[in-house]
Amino acid sequence: MLSNCRRCGRMFSKVSRDICPECLKEREEVFEQVRSYLRENPGSSVPEVVEALDVLLEDVVALIQEGSLILRDFPNFNVACERCGQPTQEGRYCNNCKSELAGKLAEATAILRKTKDEPAKGRYFLRG
Ligand SMILES: [Zn+2]
Ligand SMILES: [Zn+2]
What is the pTM of this model? Predict the structure, then answer.
């Protein structure tokens, strides 16, 4: 299946990623650069690293959101949660939002199950 690379716009045959093999290779290089930079400068923030290495911010954000970088030892290296803006070091959402979203999902599942278990109530609503 042909698709446009989300990073450079070139057409490529999509396998599992939304970026082309060339971009993937470049992103892997960014990953290596970021990793060794952080090892030497563990207190760096994302903008500092992007500026120092002259790499694309979107690559660094993607690496963090994919969970490729292990960031336990780098407290300042994080991106904003897409839901509340709090800093997060893995995935698109912070831990709070992650557990809240998981809770909402469980709630929705529970409601669905409850509705299914109470056919009498369902009939009542159907009759209006
Ligand atoms: Zn590309
Ligand atoms: Zn959040």
Answer: 0.75
CA of 14 to the centre of ligand 1 (A): 11
In the reported structure, the alpha carbon of residue 48 is separated from the centroid of ligand 2 by a whole-number distance in angstroms of: 23
Q: Domain residue spans in the chain?
A: 20-93, 94-128
State in Å, rounded, how far the first CA of the chain is from the last one: 49
Ligand nearest to the CA of 85: 2
The ligand with the least distance to the CA atom of 3 is 1
- What amino acid occupies position 109? T
For residue 100, report the distance from its CA to the centre of ligand 2, in Å. 9
- pLDDT tens digit string along 62-102? 999 988 888 989 999 999 999 999 999 989 999 999 999 99
- 101 touches 84 (CB < 8 A): no
Q: What angle do CA 32, 37, 40 make, to 5 degrees?
A: 135
